[in-house]
Amino acid sequence: MRLHRIDATGTTEHPVEELEALLATPGGFVWLDIPQCTDAAVDVLRRVFHFHELAVHDCVVRNHVSKIHSYEDHVFTVLHAPQIGNGGHVHYIELDQFLGPNYLVTVHGPLSTAVDPSVAGLDTGSVLARLRSGAYIPASPFALSAAIVRAMARREIEMIASRAEKSGLLEQKVVLVDDPGGDAEQFLNELFRVWYELLAIRTIATQSSATYDRVARLARFLPADVLPVVADLADGFDMVAEMADGQREFLHGVIEYFQTRISAHQAISAGETADTAIQQNDDMRRITAWVGIVAVPTAVTGFFGQNVPYPGFGEGGGFLASTAVILLSAAALYVFFRKKRWL
Question: CA 21, CA 333: separation in Å to the nearest integer?
Fold first, then answer.
């Protein structure tokens, strides 16, 4: 756990043991950042701050949607930031906040074992770096919380920008390549992976916006002059959601265009295959017809090749008669096959 005291002079870091004394010190406020909600952290949340058990429980378990619990003197929120993992899986990086009149408590996680623990502190870490450098001195716990939330929104916009760049490269492959075939399934999977990542970012931003809409209505202890800032935070997440939606629509159009081109190529290929099959059937009919015609003399000569005497056997007339039988039979078959349009 990292404890900071922030006042007009800047930021100082203190051991956690000084937390109660710093809370009782007038002027300024404290920021307690908890990287992981261990048993020791739970004890601090209960013993020092006396937070509600439901809120403390939400810090211990993973929450799959954003939440807000409003109390008389503080508000508890659950927000998420997206993190793209292997295979396009989107991890929900949870950040819980207790916001009171003279303190801000941020609780990270729990995290999936597949996520690098350092990811959880990206947004709070960037704000802390500005505090330590003196570039930023928040006037209140709410201002500090707003800075952290804006850092989350900026990171989501950067993710959308990177997905937009990837969408553009995929769109070029679809439009500029003459044959969109190849490994169409793999290419479609890549398109849908980016589409899903944008959907996850949009979902997280929409939930965050709804959370801050409720903060504006439920956080009774907030002064009136910060309500426009709350509305601005909600608008910021609305903008993230709209950007993700717009990029998702563009990608959806690319997917439809790609599928149409693939379908057209498949239809043309199927037509060519059908024409080839028809031609092969015609060829087979012709071959069968000619085989039938040629089989006649073979049958006649084969039959009479059994050395069985027949009328005209050994005589010129018999030879002429057998030849006539062959020609007439072949002609009859030829006429029959022509009528059947096999020839």
Answer: 114
Q: What is the DSSP string of 76-87?
A: EEEEEEEEE-GG
Residues in contact with 72: Cβ distance below 8 Å, sequence separation at least 6, in sequence order: 220, 221
Contact 122, 11 (CB under 8 A): no
For residue 79, the 8-state DSSP code is E
- Calculate the CA 139 to chain-centre distance: 40
Looking up tokens 């020791």 gives: 40
DSSP assignment, residue 66?
Answer: -
Name every residue whose Cβ is closer than 8 Å to that of residue 110 and which is 6 or more positions away in sequence. Answer: 36, 37, 60, 61, 62, 94
Q: Are 141 and 29 in contact (CB under 8 A)?
A: yes
Joined together, the tokens standing for residue 39 give: 């048993």
Each residue's pLDDT tens digit, 145-164: 999 999 999 999 999 998 88
Tokens linked to 296: 């006649």
**Which residues does residue 99 pair with via DSSP β-bridges, in sequence order?**
75, 104
Q: Is the pLDDT of residue 306 over 60?
A: no
Is-contact 244 194, C-beta < 8 A?
no
Lowest mean pLDDT among 6-10, 193-197, 271-275: 271-275
- Measured between alpha carbons, how far is residue 232 from residues 15, 49, 72, 108, 153 in Å? 34, 29, 23, 24, 12
Position 18 scores a pLDDT of 93
Tell which residue, 317, 163, 328, has the closest CA to residue 240. Answer: 163
pTM here? 0.73
Q: How far apart are CA 165 and CA 160, in angstroms?
A: 9
Buried b (16+ CB within 10 A) or exposed e, 243-266: bbbebbebbeebbeebeebbeeee
